[in-house]
Amino acid sequence: MPEWSEEVLKDIVGQLFIVGFHGYIANDNIKELITKYRVGSVVLFQRNVQNATQLRELTNSLQQIARDAGHSHDLLIAIDQENGLVTRIKPPIATQLPGAMTLAATRDPENAYMTACATAQTLKAFGINMNYGPVADVNSEPKNPVIGVRSPSDKFDLVGTYVSRQIKGFEKIGVASCVKHWPGHGDTSEDQILAKLPASLNPLAIRPLRQHFKFKGLIISDCLEMDGNMEESLERVNILKSKYAPRAALFPINLPELQRQNEEQERLASQIYAKSTTVVRSSLGVTTTSSGILQLPKLPEDGTKIVFLSPKKGSVGGAVESGEEKTRVPHTPKEYINLLRTKNRDIKHIEYDKALSRHDSKSVDDAEIVILATRNAIINTEQKALGLHWGKKLGERLIVIATCDPYDFMEDAELIKNYITIYEPTIPAFQAAVNLLFGDIEPGGPFGSLPVGHEILIQAIH
């Protein structure tokens, strides 16, 4: 190791750290880390996002602190804006954009590119120059509790196609993207994060990137490359900063321009959600439109006994105190039922946990149509059991909407006759399903155009 002074060493080491903090303004802790310890990168979470004006003021203040402290480059300011299930900057601040598997379900990689461009435009407007995404894990394990719909597919070639288009989109707008997770988080039925055994401490995990794949870019991990590699690591950081964090004037947020941008992105998102909604199975019958596209029969509106079943809000995982439990979008039955009631105001709403009460069971029995929303029933035995129970009793009267992982009832064609997947439990994704059920949109492609496998078990309608 070269003989560095304490100040030079502090500068170098600080540039290799990415830190987070609490609050909507730059507190004393983050100021000290940037000023005294020369930290060169910051990551924002939901806990740092309050509104549009505040967020831009926060990123401006962080950059000003670094400039006043004499940093040679501006900060890298990063966030996890994967969209879909993991969305840090949410409506009404920014447009809800579709996540990875939703994009892949459209079977049009151009949607991935346009969504990445839109995401980068949003981040740039808020002074954020790096995104921790897209997710490049191949979700080969249907019971994966961590990745699931955050990945485009369980097929490596499909993942590669959509991820590469997203990278191009970020590159086009000028926001750095960070592909994750190395060496892979897709083939597991358990959370692989082990506090005492991070992959970044194992040279066998990092070495293939540098030596076999000849990757010369920045690797972001939970530890530093020390000793002889520090100068090389600093050089990689500076190269990235020179490209994506050039020093420029710090402006407040342009709210009219942000509103125009959000409106434009909402139109894009609406089109993509409509094209991604997948009818895996239908016993309701189909018709062919004048354009030759298959279409579900329109559900009846007011006057028909329809019951909507949705799971009660449950706990979800996430980074400790990051606010991620909010951005992973817990089930939102109030919004869901409101969307349904815009089509049929008489729909009865029942929230379920385990088994239904006798009174609720009678309401379901008496209904002409029952719409059941599930969230990851493939790893939730109570949701799965409830769905199969009512599938057996109701037959064609039951319509199941898998609001997250599409695997919930993929292998249960005998009992679940009508099965729709939307890939993420966001409001616009569910709105697209409601529109489809009540005849307001046509599905974007052949029914059953799933971006995941199990094709033999799927009874897609053609």
Automatic annotation (TrEMBL):
<keyword id="KW-0326">Glycosidase</keyword>
<dbReference type="InterPro" id="IPR050226">
    <property type="entry name" value="NagZ_Beta-hexosaminidase"/>
</dbReference>
<dbReference type="InterPro" id="IPR036881">
    <property type="entry name" value="Glyco_hydro_3_C_sf"/>
</dbReference>
<feature type="domain" description="Glycoside hydrolase family 3 N-terminal">
    <location>
        <begin position="10"/>
        <end position="191"/>
    </location>
</feature>
<dbReference type="Pfam" id="PF00933">
    <property type="entry name" value="Glyco_hydro_3"/>
</dbReference>
<dbReference type="InterPro" id="IPR036962">
    <property type="entry name" value="Glyco_hydro_3_N_sf"/>
</dbReference>
<keyword id="KW-0378">Hydrolase</keyword>
<dbReference type="InterPro" id="IPR017853">
    <property type="entry name" value="GH"/>
</dbReference>
<dbReference type="GO" id="GO:0004553">
    <property type="term" value="F:hydrolase activity, hydrolyzing O-glycosyl compounds"/>
</dbReference>
<dbReference type="GO" id="GO:0009254">
    <property type="term" value="P:peptidoglycan turnover"/>
</dbReference>
<dbReference type="GO" id="GO:0005975">
    <property type="term" value="P:carbohydrate metabolic process"/>
</dbReference>
<dbReference type="InterPro" id="IPR001764">
    <property type="entry name" value="Glyco_hydro_3_N"/>
</dbReference>
<protein>
    <submittedName>
        <fullName>Beta-hexosaminidase A</fullName>
    </submittedName>
</protein>
<keyword id="KW-0325">Glycoprotein</keyword>
<comment type="similarity">
    <text>Belongs to the glycosyl hydrolase 3 family.</text>
</comment>
